[in-house]
Amino acid sequence: MTAAPVLDIRNMQTVFRIGGRDIAAVTDLTLTVAPGETVALVGESGSGKSVTSLSILGLLPKKVGRLAQGSVAFRGKSGETRDLAKLDAEALRRVRGNDIAMVFQEPMTSLNPVYTVGEQIAEPIRIHLGRSHREAAADAVSLLADVGIPDPERRARQYPHELSGGMRQRATIAMALACNPSLLIADEPTTALDVTIQAQILDLLARLQRERGMAMLFVTHNLGVVAEIADRVAVMYAGRIVETGRVADVFAHPRHPYTKGLLRSVPRLGEASALKAAGTPLPTIAGAVPSLSNLPTGCSFAPRCPYAIPACSAAVPPLAETGDGQLSRCIRWQEI
Ligand SMILES: Nc1ncnc2c1ncn2[C@@H]1O[C@H](COP(=O)(O)OP(=O)(O)OP(=O)(O)O)[C@@H](O)[C@H]1O
């Protein structure tokens, strides 16, 4: 990747103040996203994926959550690079929805039920781009057409509840793209949708990203979705990236036992129903994600890991270069 990254996170730590203690939900996270690139953050529930995206956006819950360490360098549309970790609330608000847009799992998180869809898409265009009411309204209609909503003039006049779930998610994507962001953060954007609609929304995001050359950070627990949409993947476990690399490399040669376990638990086409018919459950990773307030010493995955040896519990393994830009936080990566 030759182009300078749009997003360059270094050694980020995010903590939550719980019962008078700081609990780290994300630790030592280093991640870049280049222009036109899609990077997926993947991991089980509670691994820190959403906390990572909220940290970038400055949307951590006030008083409780804070970015305690590290930098989040972001290059906006003007070409200027700023450390989002150092911006105040007002400056971050200007970045969100203009330079960085977001799409969440539940479209109603972003849509306001009391305004029409067209009004909501037009608003950021007026605020951030200074377009007139009339121009912004016309832009909103063309954005609705661009995200594949039929009869966009009529849809623009409707309220969110008059649209289906899939159409609502298309509308939030239109809203997200309204100001031509350089980075789109999509946090489980298809999880709440029917399978066929999921595929359509993924296709839509991939097309829009390609056409606009946007950078995209895609948060998901679904490896099938990663394979579909991402160029690179970062696998998270208990708040840390444990493996990262190009999707094709990581899927073909996982170098961390956790990634290997996750990949084994993804059914191949037809395999899930065959196993079900035979009464055989799909393989899963035995054990549970440890509590962040009580992480084991050394590698957090060691208690669940079939490769674990005493040395794994001595210290947190560093991210080791395993070749071709692939990194693994496992001291035994060569044997995996
Ligand atoms: N507001 C909060 N207060 C305290 N702890 C929090 C808060 N939000 C998240 N956490 C903790 O941070 C950890 C990571 O949560 P996060 O939501 O990032 O996980 P995730 O990987 O996105 O999982 P999911 O797929 O379930 O959303 C969890 O252990 C969670 O308990």
UniProtKB/TrEMBL annotation:
Gene3D superfamilies noted in UniProt: P-loop containing nucleotide triphosphate hydrolases
GO molecular function: ATP binding
Any Pfam family hit: ABC_tran
Domain (ABC transporter) ranges: 9-263
PROSITE patterns to which the protein is assigned, alphabetical: ABC_TRANSPORTER_1, ABC_TRANSPORTER_2
Location(s), subcellular: Cell inner membrane
SMART domains in the record: AAA
SUPFAM superfamilies: P-loop containing nucleoside triphosphate hydrolases
Sorted UniProt keywords: ATP-binding, Cell membrane, Membrane, Nucleotide-binding, Transport
Topology of this chain in the membrane: Peripheral membrane protein
Source organism, top-level taxon: Bacteria
PANTHER family tied to this protein: DIPEPTIDE TRANSPORT ATP-BINDING PROTEIN DPPD, OLIGOPEPTIDE TRANSPORT ATP-BINDING PROTEIN APPD
Family: Belongs to the ABC transporter superfamily.
NCBIfam families named in the record: oligo_HPY (TIGR01727)
Protein name: ABC transporter ATP-binding protein
Lineage: Bacteria, Pseudomonadati, Pseudomonadota, Alphaproteobacteria, Hyphomicrobiales
